[in-house]
């Protein structure tokens, strides 16, 4: 009887080992993990890749007649439109918001609170817009400043223009007010208009991110680089100004798989011992 009882126990142990081996192998195949949380500090390098607070970009596009000039390929306004499209794609894919305005002698809203589902409609409106006589760059900066200050979320201003202004407020005076308020602002100059040199020099001397885009045929990839780099700078500065540079992010800990594998080895050996 004792022999039968002992054999029965070993039989049950072998059955358990085989069953447990199969279960653990299925669990390991599912790649289990333990979800933990850690704090990450935002930097210009990682700001586009972590789940930070949503920001708002207030974007202004110059639609004056000189934006139709072809000193850049295929034209200044075409470069501006391509930049807008790439910046919007970068922002909305990360859960951020973009408001697009156009300006000539007045500033007009084109698309507000863009998301991934409304980008195509907005770009169609921008591509179909007619160029006008005047360019009030200073008014665009002032409008953006007022809008960003009133925003409940971290916000930044971006103006895309050829730098040739002939109407409204002085852009240099507008930028002085914005700079003292610490609202993040950046400038993209398209083409090589000599009338833009004063504005460009002021921005560079005062630490305002400024890019000049003058494209040739086949250089479209450079627009993607400019748009992503500039957007990451603006988003980072918006988060810094709002004091939101540390975020709690989820981390998947796969260490549990190692423990399961360590348990699997003796169980697997035991399951094979029945035939010895």
Overall description:
The protein is α/β, with parallel strands linked by helices. It has 2 domains: 2-33 and 254-275; 56-246, Rossmann fold (3-Layer(aba) Sandwich), CATH 3.40.50.410. It is built from 8 helices and 8 strands; from the N terminus they run H-E-E-H-E-E-H-H-E-H-E-H-E-H-E-H. The strands form 2 sheets. The protein has a 6-stranded mixed β-sheet, with helices on both faces. Strand 3 (97-103) and strand 4 (107-114) form a beta hairpin. Helix 1 (2-29) runs antiparallel to helix 8, helix 2 runs antiparallel to helix 3 and helix 4 (137-150) runs parallel beside helix 5. The protein is elongated and about 95 Å long. The two termini are 23 Å apart. The model has no long low-confidence stretch (mean pLDDT 87).
Throw out a few tags for this protein.
Rossmann fold, 276 residues, alpha/beta, 8 helices, six-stranded mixed beta sheet, two-stranded antiparallel sheet
Helices and strands, with pairings:
Layout: H1 2-29, E1 34-41, E2 56-62, H2 76-92, E3 97-103, E4 107-114, H3 119-127, H4 137-150, E5 155-161, H5 171-181, E6 185-190, H6 197-205, E7 210-213, H7 220-241, E8 246-253, H8 255-272
Parallel strand pairs: 2-3, 2-5, 5-6, 6-7
Antiparallel strand pairs: 1-8, 3-4
Helix pairs in contact: 1-8, 2-3, 2-7, 4-5
What is the CA-CA span between the terminal residues?
23 Å
Task: State the strand order across the main sheet.
Answer: 4-3-2-5-6-7
Q: Give the SSE order as H and E letters.
A: HEEHEEHHEHEHEHEH
Outline the biggest β-sheet: 6 strands, mixed
For the record, the CATH architecture of the largest domain stands as: 3-Layer(aba) Sandwich
- Count of DSSP helices? 8
Uncertain spans, ≥5 residues at pLDDT below 50?
none
Kindly report the average pLDDT value.
87
Share of residues in strands: 15-25%
- State the CATH superfamily name of the largest domain: von Willebrand factor, type A domain
CATH topology of the largest domain: Rossmann fold
The best one-word shape is: elongated
Please report the total strand number as a whole number.
8
Could you tell me the radius of gyration in angstroms?
29 Å
Structural class: alpha/beta
**What share of residues is helical?**
40-55%
Output the CATH class name of the largest domain.
Alpha Beta
- Total discrete domains: 2
